[in-house]
Amino acid sequence: MGPVLEGIILGVLTGGVYALMSSGLTLVFGVMNIINVGQGALVILGAYLSFVLEQRLHIDLFPGLLITMPVMFLFGWLISFVFRPIKRDLMMLSVLITFGIALIIEGALNLIFSANIVSLQGWYVTASIPLPGFSPTFYLSYIYVFGFLLAVVLLTGLYILVYRTDFGRSLRASMENRTAAELVGINVERVSSITFGIGVALAAAGGMAFGATNGFDANSAYDLISRLLAIIVFGGMGSLSGALIASVGMLVIEDVVAQVWQQNWATTVFFILLVVIMVLRPQGLLGQKEGRQQ
Amino acid sequence: MKFFKAFGLLALLILVILFSSGLLLLVLALAFPQAFASGELTPVVISLIVAVTVVGWNLLAGENGSIKGVGLLILLAFAAAFPLLFPNGEVTSIAFFTLMFAAMVTGWNLLAGYSGYLSLGHVVYFGLGAYALALICEHWNVPAGYGIFLLVPVAGLIAAVIAIPAGWVALRVRRHAFIIVTIAMFFIGQLLAENLTNVTNGTTGLDLPFPLAWGGDFFNTPFYYAILLLLLLAIALSWWVRHSKYGLGLLAIRDDEDRARGLGVKTEISKLTAYVLAALIIGMAGAIWSYFIGAVYPMSAFDPTFDVTIALMGFLGGIGTISGPIVGALLLEPLRQTLAANAPDWYLVIYGGLLLLVLLLLPRGILPTLQERWQKYRALRQSERPSDDIVISSLPEQGKPANIT
Known about the structure:
The structure holds two protein chains of two kinds. Chain A is built from twelve helices and two strands.
């Protein structure tokens, strides 16, 4: 029972961090009909921003988010203008455009930081607490707990923003029906830009937690984006709670498989499970059934 | 009269192409004198000229099938003579990769361009084809030589057979989820190649027989002709699909799947056929590639950047067209290789920036955008003549679908 429980604990804690990264992705898809394959690169960019603040200015990772998140929000807000003139085939083109953006980010990061693997530092990264009740004592690094708490705080904020404010109401209206939302006077373009900014800011926060628990370089983006995309399909594209459940579900499955079987089969099992679920339930866990859209 | 008109058009074509390629050479020579003199830009220049020729030829020939046929023959003659004209090993290597991508994009276009289902994971069949050939050679102790090329279709078929159940699963979902399911399948392929160590040898990879007899600059030549043959097969397939009732069904699926189904198009089997045909072409490309490279590894045979490269080339040239994928491959691959070799630090930034620029300026691809503008210009010019009826002349010919060139 020990290894399974360890896997579940680790999975839930890191799943929260993945929920941060994937919630932005699924919101942006819902509102703008854009598949942002650059989200992985944006996560890594956020991690590097935290890295610079911590290394050069000696600002702790968590307060540093007060700087990186607004900066990344602005960056995302700016990126969203790229999509405004496109009227046809937006979804397909968005995949390629965001990939182009990801390439530029990756190239720039490689130029500045070279391809060395780095990781974020802080006292909570090295310090750990022994969990009671495990026979070979299971040490849990504080960063996992802190990252999870950060995710809970930010996602609660996101929940309030989406379901309890006027902006959230226009956001959900734009998701449900873009044209109708425009007709009742919602500035859908503005909502889209802000949503993209929020998505990127959340990615930056996720990137900080990711960078503190994993070594990373500019190339880590490929691994990340494949997981994030799998998560939002798994949860149902455009569904916020679906993304949360899928993030935690995926990471729990991965970590349990890694603990009881082998690390290198963990991701394979997840992807195979994803395909099985797509066969049984093509719209994902909480997605809307697809069909004719007018 | 018709003969003279066609002849005049041909002469005009050749003049325009000579003029534009001369201009291109001049601009490049002035902009990058050093790289130009040292010959590093040769592949880029050649491919640019060929791409401009293909685009110009398509625009001017319009719907005239015989002129298009002549153009294809000239292009074919040039492609066949290429290793003789430019025997340099580096140049033929880039030519090999360009043709390889042209073939893969043409195959991918059968699915993505005609049926509208954008697959970002078809490179999984590239890897499967590569591994299939490597495993066949290992288990049967196939000696190096020309005989291995005969096994390429076998490797392609293996990839295609695997694509049948995989495609059935992937095509259960629509557009956007399909994109991501294909990406997931790609990573399953890569991870399996990494993890099934007793079959694939894991990250150590597999070696293929090395043809020692083909030394020096000649080494690339057999591979070049093999991939050229594959490209021809892909073009023939693409032409057939484009001009058949089956292809019309695919285009109907692209425009409105539910309505197409209502009109009696067998949507499921049509989509699956396109998926498997694309896998077949890409699988064979992977097999030839593995023999050319001489070894397969999970990370090189299942390369995620290939997936996006294919889609980019398709979009750049114009998906749903026959020559668009070839134009896309001609423009991007030599440029990418030259950039990667000469400016490794800045390569990703420049490449990404260029892609962004092209996608934003020509979102529908070079060929469809230019074709539309050219037709508008022609219609405008004809409308100034009093005798022609503008409404009739701007309509597409009967029996040919509009807007899908």
